[in-house]
Amino acid sequence: MGRKWEEAGDRYVEVEHLLSWHVSRTLHRCAPAPDTAPPPTATLVLACVPGEQHALPLEALSAALGELGLPQRMFGAAVPVEAVSAAVRRTGPAVVVLWSQARSTASVPLARHIADTRWGVRGARGRPVVMLGGPGWAGPAVRGALRPTTLREALTQIGKVCGDHSNAAVRQRG
């Protein structure tokens, strides 16, 4: 569908949006129910970079993490820098996933800023591991950031960061 839309310009964009909506709705069924909201200190923060409207791949990751029982906060499309920063400082996640579909939205300064964000009391401060998801990050390099190329690779890398429980769940899904 994406290739057809790409070849036809703006024609068929409504078909792409309709299909995306249905896929998104299906993925939301895998998300934790509202009464099982993530704890105040979620293991992961998932957000599209500012200006990025394509959240479907991030929704797929969120659904997979939900099936594994990994606590998360999914913020979705076009999250302002200040909002991501505040969420990271407040929740102290082990991993922050930043999604960029296009190189024009990938922001190395944002990724570095998030990687340098600290939380916690003096002497016991933590900082997140940044995971750069999507083809938008193909050019820029951010030292220390994870760059999975598949959903399975993202889950494996998250499992390594988040500990044994996550690794066992990822292996079990096979």
Which keywords apply here?
174 residues; alpha/beta; Rossmann fold; 2 domains; 4-stranded parallel beta sheet; globular
Give a verbal description of the structure:
A 4-stranded parallel sheet has the order 2-1-3-4, with helices on both faces. The protein is globular, with a radius of gyration of 16 Å. By secondary structure, the chain is an alpha/beta fold. The chain contains 7 helices and 4 strands.
Summarize the structure.
With 174 residues, the protein is an alpha/beta fold. Helices cover 44% and strands 11% of the residues.
Radius of gyration equals 16 Å
CATH homologous superfamily annotation of the largest domain: Cobalamin-binding domain
What order do the strands of the largest sheet run in, or round the barrel if closed? 2-1-3-4
Question: Gap between N and C termini, in Å?
Answer: 28 Å
CATH class of the largest domain: Alpha Beta
The number of helices is: 7
CATH architecture assignment name of the largest domain: 3-Layer(aba) Sandwich
Under CATH, the topology of the largest domain can be stated as Rossmann fold
**Coarse morphology:** globular
Stretches where pLDDT is under 50 for at least 5 consecutive residues are 165-174
Mean pLDDT: 82
How many domain regions? 2
- Which percent bin holds the helix content? 40-55%
Strand content: 5-15%
Give the helices and strands as they follow along the chain: HHEHEHEHEHH
Major beta sheet summary:
4 strands, parallel
Q: How many beta-strand segments?
A: 4
Give me the secondary-structure category: alpha/beta
